[in-house]
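Help needed: design a sequence for this.
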């Protein structure tokens, strides 16, 4: 029996074992997946919790429900990979040998790495919404908040789902209108980027929408520390930004076990071939999802397209053939913009988000880089798709690689 070991049963790991269990014979391949946490969280749903649109129960389901028959699931944490011996040590002392290994341990927020963020004011006047605990605590706070200056700050890039902060601030605009206190709330988006988004065309479109909504963007704000008593963010150049309520997206980093295994970069992401996900050092180790060091947005949708390419390539690789389906960085994200509307962006390593229609050229029905009600419904449908189609590794009638058809470009 050949052994495939997957570390991390989140979005990417779950999709991989579902796909490969169908394709690899049970008489030839043993597939094992390891994760210490029993609950699968639908992370895109965290965005809606602070505004009372979703509750905690709307975003959680048991992980084993999504692991197919014929895959061994071990509830444990990986401690270290020993690549030269093709084995992984778990923190409970158990050792798992493998022939092929997939690292899919994602990324998470590290508020402790920015001085002043965690402390007595954490979840009193400083909140996050990138964790279930943060999103739930912020929902409780917003129910009775009387207004003031809300600053949303991204500490450093890359972060997973880089559009989520924009969605948060636009939903906040809608939410405070609904509460009848928008005139008492100042909304500020302080970002390390030079504008609203990473790429120039989308940055212009999104920046204009923020301006129309009366949301101020403070670009190139690199926070050095937070002074929680004075309620101020302090930039490296010592300029300050005051807040009444701070919503932070802390530094994102991969799991420490990647660093302990000597496989990570400075943010614990695994350097891999950006088209095949194969480790640059080890011919039997792949990294997929947020934990892979790829020059594209860390997102569930990107992971989905990546897994499409990966599974075909994996079957070739184990038979000693070249991997012929290169992933092109394809990602798309709905961007909820409030008042029942949303936008959609579709891009890859080489092509930035452009206006147009998706997935059918000219017809859509989704509008790229344009607000529409249909895009909002696409976003709301995504949760159903996630639980029922994507996680279970079902095929979508969408090509894994990005198409230029339907995009308006010069
Ligand atoms: C607020 C928010 C909004 C988002 N919105 C969107 C969106 O609209 N669209 C979109 O496509 N994406 C969105 N995302 C991003 C998306 O959720 C992630 O990109 C996706 O879940 C990444 O999948 P992953 O498998 O790489 O990581 P995860 O799904 O995070 O899974 C990692 C798994 O690894 C496990 N693990 C970690 N360390 C170890 C270890 N040492 N041993 C064993 N297991 C370990 C964890 O327990 C976890 O189960 C959003 C994320 C957030 C936070």
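Sure. Designed sequence:
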């Amino acid at each position: 029996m050949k052994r495939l070991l997957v570390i991390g049963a989140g979005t990417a790991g779950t999709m991989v074992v579902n796909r490969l269990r169908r394709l690899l014979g049970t008489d030839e391949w043993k597939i094992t997946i390891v994760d210490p946490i029993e609950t699968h969280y639908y992370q895109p749903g965290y965005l809606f919790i602070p505004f009372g649109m979703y509750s905690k129960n709307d975003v959680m389901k048991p992980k084993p429900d999504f692991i197919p028959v014929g895959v061994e699931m071990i509830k444990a944490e990986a401690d270290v990979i020993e690549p030269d011996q093709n084995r992984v040590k778990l923190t409970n002392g158990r050792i798992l040998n493998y022939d092929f290994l997939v690292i899919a341990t994602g990324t998470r927020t590290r508020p402790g790495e920015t001085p002043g963020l965690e402390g007595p004011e954490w979840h009193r006047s400083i909140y996050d919404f990138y964790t279930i605990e943060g999103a739930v605590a912020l929902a409780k706070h917003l129910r009775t908040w009387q207004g003031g200056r809300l600053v949303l700050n991204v500490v450093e890039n890359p972060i997973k789902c880089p559009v989520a902060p924009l969605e948060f601030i636009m939903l906040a605009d809608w939410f405070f209108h609904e509460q009848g206190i928008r005139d008492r709330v100042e909304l500020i988006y302080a970002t390390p980027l030079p504008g609203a988004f990473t790429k120039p065309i989308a940055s212009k479109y999104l920046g204009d929408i923020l301006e129309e909504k009366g949301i101020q963007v403070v670009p190139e704000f690199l926070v050095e520390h937070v002074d929680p008593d004075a309620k101020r963010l302090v930039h490296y150049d010592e300029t300050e930004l005051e807040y009444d309520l701070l919503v932070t997206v802390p530094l994102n980093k991969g799991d420490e076990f990647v660093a302990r295994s000597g496989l990570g970069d400075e943010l614990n992401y695994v350097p891999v071939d950006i088209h095949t996900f194969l480790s640059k050092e080890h011919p039997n180790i792949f990294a997929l999802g947020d934990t892979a060091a790829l020059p594209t947005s860390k997102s569930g949708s990107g992971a989905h397209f990546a897994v499409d390419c990966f599974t075909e390539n994996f079957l070739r690789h184990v038979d000693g053939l070249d991997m012929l389906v290169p992933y092109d960085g394809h990602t798309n994200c709905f961007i909820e913009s409030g008042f029942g509307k949303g936008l959609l962006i579709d891009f890859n390593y080489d092509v930035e988000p452009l206006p147009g229609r998706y997935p059918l050229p000219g017809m859509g029905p989704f509008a790229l880089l344009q607000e529409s009600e249909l895009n909002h419904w696409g976003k709301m449908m995504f949760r159903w798709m996630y639980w029922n189609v994507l996680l279970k590794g079902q095929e979508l009638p969408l090509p894994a690689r990005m198409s230029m058809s339907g995009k308006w470009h010069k």
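Residues 7-13, 34-37, 43-44, 46-47, 77-78, 104-106, 129-130, 160-161, 164, 255, 257, 289-291, 298-301, 303, 333 surround flavin-adenine dinucleotide (CB under 6 Å).
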